Amino acid sequence: MEGIATSEFLAQRPQYSQDTRELQRYVELAVDWEATHGLLFRAPASDSAAGSAAGSWQQTALVPAPITLAPSPIPRSSFDRVIALQPTLNTLFDRISRDHDFLVSTLQSLGTADEFTTRVFAMYMRQRSQGAEKPGVVGIHRSDYLVHAGAEPQAKQVEFNTIAASFASLSSVVGDFHRYMLERTGYAGLLKAGRVTSDQLPRNESLTSIGDGIAAGFELYGQPE
How far is Cα 211 from Cα 130, in angstroms, rounded to an integer? Predict the structure, then answer.
């Protein structure tokens, strides 16, 4: 799907069944796989169950993470481009974070419109007033994209996160789940058009990459230079 028009991309992309009866067996396979591979998170809190025995149980319950049964398509050329672009984006946002005048002129104008950003900005100002030196900084970044269907399909950045990277432990194994589903079922009955092959499923190394980054930061911590 490289260098093709949007109409061709849309025509070639995998299309999946919308019949819930056909989807049920895939859902059951997904729940079992997630339960045995740690693709789980705590059950959302329920106001109706608060204070009850059920509510107490729900506070410790784990549920399958919401995932797609099959991969979502993106042109390979766009995927390769955003991977190659990430180091440049990392450098850009690192330099922005060091530009005090720009941060003040941009974030101070928010006032109280965004409570979270207001609190983070206040923390930044307190830290700066204390004169704390930061000889080493570890950045954990997540860049989000959607495929824009213009004349040609292109990946467009919709968000750049410097704090919300907690789901790396889950997203890093979603690709393994898709590979399992492909090997186990071939998506027979689910795939109505197009095809999915193993070479279309890239490895996600976000968890080990973040771990390596934190380890590198720990090695720098406390060193005189």
Answer: 29
pLDDT for the residue numbered 115? 85
**Main-chain dihedrals φ then ψ at residue 161, nearest 5 degrees:** -100, 135
Q: Average pLDDT, stretch 198-212?
A: 89
pLDDT at 46: 66
Q: How far apart are CA 50 and CA 40, in angstroms?
A: 22
Helix 168-185 to helix 20-37 angle, to the nearest 10 degrees? 130
pLDDT tens for 87-124 read 999 999 999 988 999 999 888 777 677 888 888 888 88
**Nearest-angstrom CA–CA distance, 159 and 141:** 11
DSSP states along 159-218: EEESS--TTHHHHHHHHHHHHHHHHHHTTTTTEEES---GGGS----HHHHHHHHHHHHH
For the cut 90, the answer to whether the pLDDT of residue 163 exceeds it is: no
CA distance 58 to 44: 8
Q: Which residue blocks in the chain are alpha helix, DSSP H?
A: 6-12, 20-37, 53-58, 76-97, 100-107, 115-129, 168-185, 206-220
Sign for the pseudo-dihedral over CA of 182, 71, 24, 17: negative
Q: Can you give the pLDDT at residue 100? A: 92
Beta strand 15-16 with 142-149 is unpaired
- CB contact burial 197-207 (16+ within 10 A = b; e otherwise): eeebeeeeebb
